[in-house]
Hints:
Layout: H1 2-22, H2 26-46
Amino acid sequence: MADVHLTxxxxxxxxxxxxxxxxxxxxxxxxxxxxxxxxLGLYLVRRPAGHGTTRARLA
Length: 59
């Protein structure tokens, strides 16, 4: 019975590996995300000091 389980596990692992090989490469996604984060960082650096900050008012 353990041999059947092991065989099924190997078959499923082979299917998953084949599916992963057909998947979209990760590098373009990582590159796009990286440049998006760089752009966001530059946007935040260029904002004037105090822009968008709120101070609590004491009544």
